[in-house]
Amino acid sequence: MASFLLFILMSTLHFQFGFPLSSNTNSNEDFKYMNFVQDASELPENEEYDYIVIGGGTAGCPLATTLSSTFSVLLLERGNVPTKYPTVLREETFPNAFTIEDDGENPFQRFVSEDGVEIIRGRVLGGSSMLNAGFYSRGHQEFFDISGVDWDMELVEKAYEWVEESVVFEANINNGWQNAFRKALLEAGVGPYNGFDLNHRIGTKIGGSIFDKEGNRHGSLELLNKAHPNNLKVAIQATVQKILFSDLSATGVSYSDSKGNLHTASIRKNGEIIVSAGTIGSPQLLLLSGIGPKSHLESLELPVVLDQPHVGQSMSDNPRYNVHVILPYQLATSAVKTVGTLENNVHLQSITGFLPFSLPPSFSLVPPGLDSVNLSLASIVGKFSEVLSEGSLYLTSSTDVKKNPSVSFNYYSHPDDLAKCVRGVRKMGELLKTEAMEKIKIQDFEGNKRFAFVEPSLPENLSDVGSVEEFCKKTVTTYWHYHGGCLVGKVVDGNYKVIGIENLRVVDGSTFIDSPGTNPMATVMMLGRYVGLNIIQERSKLFSRDVGHNIM
Ligand SMILES: Cc1cc2nc3c(=O)[nH]c(=O)nc-3n(C[C@H](O)[C@H](O)[C@H](O)COP(=O)(O)OP(=O)(O)OC[C@H]3O[C@@H](n4cnc5c(N)ncnc54)[C@H](O)[C@@H]3O)c2cc1C
Ligand SMILES: *[C@@H]1O[C@H](CO)[C@@H](O)[C@H](O)[C@H]1NC(C)=O
Ligand SMILES: *[C@@H]1O[C@H](CO)[C@@H](O)[C@H](O)[C@H]1NC(C)=O
């Protein structure tokens, strides 16, 4: 189902994108976090910390940093440092996320959902913020209203700002296409124009980006640069196998290093273990640790710590609907820069990359005097929020944490989702009819101007609901904003504490009932900071003389 031609085209791009970054050293302020990093194989067999954070991803990094201001923290990340795969640090090589094969160790962990859709998970320090399209936009109000959390909105604001002062830039409209796309959105009535804005807005805006104007990526791992210099240890190639318990209290974790040796890390009195292993990793780890539906755990002969039917349930993915157009010019690769948002939270965005093909002079498109013309590919992609279709996550017969669990999302099983897709596709149709888009049409043999679509093109008759619905279902793929599995109110309470277990929280995208805003990363980073601040506050109230422990 997901075998889009785009995928094939992008695969062939692979060689063009191999942009080596000069080796980064700690002398560069951005890479200060390297001072905290140690390979897990260098760590002792047993250690104690106030807090252990599992997963050095989008939420885990800001969370560990925040806790380190007051407590000793161990951050365990199964992947390596991104400097080992420097292409993830650059915008022009961001399409690697669609092409590079999963070798079991690199940042690109792939899996195919039970729906047949190809999906990717981050496996690197910085998590999926090192693979993504970089767009940064805050959550929408409805997300906060329905999320089951009694938010302190002042603290939310402060937490967003803390993230933004370090890793967020005004998205750089680095090629003519993003500008044309923005104009087309406005012509198609996706107004008003809100200029540059980090807040969620109806209309068209330029958002934030974790790519700076030179195209360097500043993922969540750069938030580690703000950690207390003596209180944080970041272990890489540290794969957590399970959480350890004494009755219904979490006491520590067991993790393996790259040499296959097992280590144990335990928490001190009043400490906690926080799972930030992502939407796939967090429910998977709870299941492997014995928290989940009893019958499922028993069928795999896993010891049951707590019978919890909701772990791995309510898995949702925002379906992507899209068109890809070949452009007869060379454009710089561009991640997401602008967004058009309709009421009902239907969103349109775009990315471009250039193609490894050029047209020979025999084509009328090639101006006289030129040998050839280079081609680019522009993708117009659509998403909607408040997805109502749901699936679930189960362990396969393999209880190896490195293997992907079985995941289904049941795209479009809820009719309201289909109606939103129809709205988005129709708007895409209007957008393609605009003056701004006229320029990207090319002339065919009969002399007619048309879009050079890479299949699939939009249905001919967008008034015909049936054919648009069919387009939605037939072309469904992922927007990579999958969420759920450890929902607030079901698996964790409003403070992200695992219900029924002491000293254990889950803090990441797996807790979301809805994908926040147009794109979730901003809110995932904010959440790490927010929960960290809450924990510090809560503990200072409970234990006024309890000051935590330094590592060094
Ligand atoms: C291709 C792509 C494009 C995207 N584009 C955008 C975008 O432009 N804007 C946006 O806002 N969002 C975007 N997203 C979505 C966004 O990146 C994610 O929603 C977000 O990063 C998820 O954060 P997380 O903390 O929940 O998980 P992650 O960031 O994935 O972190 C989980 C971490 O836990 C580690 N881990 C897992 N299991 C274990 C274990 N057992 N032991 C130790 N460590 C473990 C993983 O290696 C990983 O580092 C995109 C995502 C993808 C994949
Ligand atoms: C096409 O791409 C090649 C390789 O990047 C470059 O050398 C050449 O100048 C480009 N041609 C045009 C017309 O942009
Ligand atoms: C498009 O679909 C609508 C609704 O089904 C129908 O009434 C109309 O005749 C169709 N138009 C064309 C040109 O087929």
Automatic annotation (TrEMBL):
It catalyses: (R)-mandelonitrile = benzaldehyde + hydrogen cyanide. GO terms for molecular function: flavin adenine dinucleotide binding; mandelonitrile lyase activity; oxidoreductase activity, acting on CH-OH group of donors. SUPFAM superfamilies: FAD-linked reductases, C-terminal domain, FAD/NAD(P)-binding domain. Its cofactor is FAD. Substrate binds at Y479. Residues 122-145, 278-292 form the Glucose-methanol-choline oxidoreductase N-terminal domain. Residues 1-18 form the signal peptide. It comes from the Eukaryota. Its EC number is 4.1.2.10. Disulfide bonds join C421-C472. FAD binds at V124, V240, W480, H481, G509. Keywords: Disulfide bond, FAD, Flavoprotein, Glycoprotein, Lyase, Signal. Pfam families: GMC_oxred_C (PF05199), GMC_oxred_N (PF00732). Monomer. Belongs to the GMC oxidoreductase family. This is (R)-mandelonitrile lyase. It comes from Cucumis melo. The gene is LOC103493053.
